[in-house]
Specification:
Layout (H helix, E strand, L loop, with lengths): L1 E2 L27 H12 L18 E10 L5 E12 L5 E2 L2 E4 L4 H17 L6 E7 L7 H14 L9 E2 L8 H15 L20 H20 L7 E5 L3 H12 L3 E7 L2 E4 L6 H11 L9 E3 L11 E4 L18 E3 L8 H9 L3 E3 L1 H4 L2 H15 L5 H26 L3 H20 L4
Parallel strand pairs: 4-7, 5-6, 8-9, 8-12, 12-13, 13-14
Antiparallel strand pairs: 1-2, 2-3, 3-6, 9-10, 10-11
Helix pairs in contact: 1-2, 1-12, 2-12, 3-4, 5-6, 5-10, 5-11, 10-11, 11-12
The protein binds nicotinamide-adenine-dinucleotide (NAD).
Length: 440
């Protein structure tokens, strides 16, 4: 069932008789409300482009689909799926697909909007999009997961395509799921179309370095920020929430650079060792047991205590809405690097700023993944593949340049790095919109 979340473009102030739809209300709880507040904060810095800002406050398209599959026991189960294209002013939609039991339309809308901002912040030629299915994939067999992925891909098939909208992995999706998505789309269009998704297996047109790219980007901006603020990585204590693709890679790279990873939390528990966890051993433990809980080389910790752990760098790399007004005051880190999308609420942002904690926002810090996704897409189009060294070198250069630009804008305007990133990105998006003009 297509569901359009479009509303008239006119920017009218809300009155009781003309209440805002819930998706335009910044006080509307949840990630989309967080995003709207972030846009409101940047609007005073947009100059004449501010007249276009409403464009950023509504997704261009939001599609809700029913995903019915036959379970292994013969019953039929229905799951709700989404694909949202937030803004396509700068190019085709780009953004991951999340499989999680708590996925909502509001969440996918926010994630698609953050993709618009992120893609513009690192200046890759994409708009923002995101998808999701409300399912706990851990409860499905492999065959059920494949059927779910293929049916979801077919249902959103008319929206996606190598030059229209290109999905990628996100929470609980991986290279195998991208392979099924690519195959399903290819079967439907009658030709192999590797460029329809990124994050594929390397043998199917995937890119070397994509798996680790987001974590490598997190590490790269962390190193840059440490250099600018006088924090030495070899002495730094690091705490990581989420030990999957992003958090696991970031933890490994910081540990390799000599930092001490003192605490890790995932959906199974929290482990702590002030002397430093053996990250490689912890990764092996997670592979065997499915989570960090009961890791022998650490003490267990109550989940809420994680936020007060003595550390220099805190990396939220799980889900959104984790750092809130309830725990921000307890954070002892000098720097927060947002590996996850939307982990900090605007109220918590203000508390951290008040405490002098430097926040490297998601929209720049975790842009390494989409940057290498862009490389993968370019390689698929040209059928010419680069070495891992080339990819990592280009990734690091793009992340360093983008971060330096954002840092400068923050200094010039005396604003946080989040607002600075939004200034850079919103100006690029709205300038593109203005140059293209409104159709018709
Ligand atoms: P993943 O599925 O590989 O890992 C998610 C991790 O979060 C797991 O360790 C899981 O145990 C943990 N987690 C889940 N619920 C939790 C909870 N309630 N408390 C503590 N930990 C919990 O996912 P990922 O790809 O690493 O994505 C993590 C975050 O990074 C998401 O916000 C995602 O949108 C963002 N992100 C991912 C990429 C990418 O390339 N994969 C790119 C940019 C941003």
């Amino acid at each position: 069932m297509p569901h359009t979340a479009q509303a008239p473009i006119a920017s009218t102030a809300p009155t009781a008789a003309h209440a805002l739809p819930s998706y335009l209300d910044p006080n509307h709880l949840g990630p989309w409300g967080t995003y709207l507040q972030q846009v409101d904060r940047v609007t005073p810095y947009l100059g004449s482009l501010a007249r276009w800002v409403e464009t950023l406050k509504r997704p261009k398209r939001a599609l809700i689909v029913d995903v019915p599959i036959e379970m292994d026991d013969g019953t039929i189960a229905h799951f709700e799926g989404y694909r949202v294209q937030h803004n396509l002013s700068r190019g085709p939609g780009k953004g991951g697909v999340r499989f999680h039991q708590d996925v909502t339309l509001s969440e996918v809308m926010a994630l698609s909007a953050w993709m618009s901002i992120k893609n513009a912040a690192v200046n890759v030629p994409y708009g923002g999009a995101k998808g999701g299915v409300r399912v706990d994939p851990r409860k499905l067999s492999r065959a059920e997961l494949e059927r779910l992925t293929r049916r979801y891909t077919s249902e959103i098939g008319f929206l996606i395509g190598p030059s229209k909208d290109i999905p990628a992995p996100d929470v609980n999706t991986n290279a195998q799921i991208m392979a099924w998505m690519m195959d399903t789309y290819s079967m439907n269009v009658g030709a192999t179309a590797t460029g329809v998704v990124t994050g594929k297996p390397v043998d199917l047109g995937g890119s070397l370095g994509r798996n680790e790219a987001t974590g490598r980007g997190v590490f790269t901006v962390g190193v840059e920020a440490a250099r600018l603020t006088g924090l030495t990585i070899p002495d730094a204590r690091v705490a990581v929430q989420g030990f999957g693709n992003v958090g696991g890679t970031a933890a490994k790279l910081f540990a390799q650079a000599g930092a001490r990873v003192v605490a890790v939390q995932d959906h199974t528990g929290t482990v702590h060792n002030a002397a430093g966890l053996d990250v490689t051993a912890l990764q092996r433990h997670v592979q065997h047991t499915g989570g960090v809980a009961s890791f022998a080389g650490a003490d267990a910790m109550a989940p809420d205590e994680f936020w007060g752990v003595a550390c220099d760098i805190l990396i939220p790399a799980a889900l959104e809405g984790q750092i809130t007004r309830d725990n921000a005051d307890r954070i002892r880190a000098k720097m927060v690097i947002e590996g996850a999308n939307g982990p900090t609420t605007p109220e918590a942002d203000d508390i951290l700023q008040g405490k002098g904690v430097l926040v490297l926002p998601d929209v720049i810090a975790n842009a390494g993944g989409v940057t290498v996704s862009y490389f993968e897409w370019v390689q698929d189009f040209s059928s010419f593949f680069w070495t891992e060294d080339e990819i990592n070198a280009r990734l690091v250069r793009i992340m360093q340049d983008a971060f330096a630009g954002v840092w400068q804008v923050a200094q010039e305007n005396k604003v946080t790095l989040r607002t600075a990133t939004f200034i850079v990105a919103c100006k690029r998006i709205l300038h593109a919109r203005e140059m293209r003009g409104l159709y018709p």
